[in-house]
């Protein structure tokens, strides 16, 4: 199916739709409403330039006001679980969730994975992963995600682009999970692998340009528009370094803004060496953004040197943030113990943490939360490894522990 998106480049909805389509491996073409073909398509289907973004498929069907669920249905994604009950329900489609889906289904568990946005998680947006076992030349997050998706399909795991899960409770058969649209699904065991939600930049004017020059973890989607441009990236961890190297292939320059006084605190050594060796990449340590300005899109940033307090205005249309995230666990309720930042406590950390409750005679299994039968894996878990390989390992291990739980 050929899909056409008609939208203005600096429309935040356009950026969100393009990211959704790219992340879900949906082939599409993109036309500006000012283009002759774009204008003709709008007119033919009864729309004006002010109605964009508009999606048109090759059957002549159109979509406006595209929520994730409506967009998923429109492009033919699987948006509802097939069955009412499963052996294993996985919430989250990042590396931990996908590993759990592959191992759960391959080991005979009737498995469904629920993901609100796109299979692959934040790692699916990574331009290059070079320290993952078995890929000496590196692999993009998108390719790794595609391989994982095909592997999960091969073993019969059901992958669903679903509404948010906002309720998880015990039931007679195990657990009931409810969606924000009122639907539900049941499981004998649950793995929470929801990762983290990106943190927004706290500087005057920045959020005004979200989707119009300011982007979070969107390097792959926006890179084609950044050719010969001056690109600014915020962050000092691996994702920021990988993005800098990726943009440097086509951008005029890439400036990496780091609040810390060096890169060694959070970035792998091999990435630091590549960043420092690239003549197009400029690293500014002890630097923070304190302002953003523009008209319909970002045109200027104000930077502050944390050591001297000196401020500088720079011209750019492109700012990408890779400053990490926070776990989205509040929806789980008070029965689930968390650390001070909201990450789920599991296994031995439950026993040694003051104020947590564990009501069974046996000790909690290593990745088990304070609710027996609900496990956590990947970045949502306290004391996680913050690497793709670590998340994959935890997702796989969680399935082994699910088997132990179901065998009790």
TrEMBL record:
Reactions it catalyzes: [thioredoxin]-dithiol + NADP(+) = [thioredoxin]-disulfide + NADPH + H(+)
InterPro entries: FAD/NAD-bd_sf, FAD/NAD-binding_dom, Ferredoxin-NADP_redctase_2
Annotated PANTHER family: THIOREDOXIN REDUCTASE 1-RELATED-RELATED
All copies of domain FAD/NAD(P)-binding, residue ranges: 86-395
Keywords for the protein's UniProt record, in alphabetical order: Flavoprotein, Oxidoreductase
Species this protein is from: Nocardia camponoti
Name of the protein: FAD/NAD(P)-binding domain-containing protein
GO MF assignments: thioredoxin-disulfide reductase (NADPH) activity
Gene3D superfamilies with a match to the protein in the record: FAD/NAD(P)-binding domain (3.50.50.60)
Database matches in Pfam families: Pyr_redox_2
């Amino acid at each position: 199916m050929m899909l056409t998106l008609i939208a203005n480049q600096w429309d935040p909805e356009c950026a969100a739709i393009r990211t959704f389509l790219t992340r879900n491996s949906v082939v599409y073409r993109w036309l500006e409403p000012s283009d002759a073909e774009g204008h003709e398509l709008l007119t033919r289907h009864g729309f004006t330039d002010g109605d964009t973004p508009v999606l048109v498929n090759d059957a002549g069907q159109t979509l406006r006001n595209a929520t994730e669920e409506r967009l998923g249905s429109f492009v033919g994604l699987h948006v509802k679980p097939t069955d009412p009950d499963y052996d294993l329900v996985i919430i989250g489609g990042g590396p931990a969730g996908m590993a759990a889906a592959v191992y759960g289904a391959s080991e005979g568990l009737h498995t469904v994975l629920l993901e609100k946005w796109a299979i692959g998680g934040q790692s699916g947006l990574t331009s290059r992963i070079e320290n993952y076992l078995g890929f000496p030349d590196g692999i993009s997050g998108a390719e790794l995600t595609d391989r994982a998706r095909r592997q999960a399909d091969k073993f019969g795991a059901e992958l669903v682009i679903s509404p948010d899960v906002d309720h998880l409770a015990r039931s007679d058969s195990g657990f009931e999970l409810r969606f924000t649209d009122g639907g539900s699904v049941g499981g004998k065991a649950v793995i929470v692998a929801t990762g983290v939600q990106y943190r927004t930049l706290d500087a005057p004017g920045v959020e005004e340009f979200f989707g119009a020059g300011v982007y979070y973890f969107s390097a792959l989607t926006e890179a084609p528009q950044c050719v010969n441009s001056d690109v600014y990236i915020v962050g000092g961890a691996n994702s920021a370094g990988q993005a800098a190297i990726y943009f440097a292939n086509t951008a005029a320059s890439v400036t990496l803004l780091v609040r810390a006084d060096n890169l060694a605190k959070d970035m792998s050594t091999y990435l630091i060496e590549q960043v420092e060796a690239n003549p197009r990449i400029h690293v500014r340590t002890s630097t923070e953004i304190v302002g953003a300005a523009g008209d319909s899109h970002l045109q200027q940033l104000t930077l502050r040197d944390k050591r001297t307090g000196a401020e500088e205005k720079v011209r750019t249309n492109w700012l990408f943030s890779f400053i990490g995230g926070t776990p989205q666990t509040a929806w789980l309720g008070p029965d689930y113990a968390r650390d001070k930042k909201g990450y789920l406590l599991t296994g031995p950390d439950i026993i040694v943490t003051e104020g947590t409750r564990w009501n069974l005679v046996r000790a909690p299994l290593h990745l088990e939360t304070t609710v027996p039968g609900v496990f956590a894996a990947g970045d949502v878990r306290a004391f996680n490894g913050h690497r793709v390989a670590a998340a994959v390992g935890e997702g796989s291990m969680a399935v082994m522990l699910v088997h132990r739980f179901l065998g009790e």
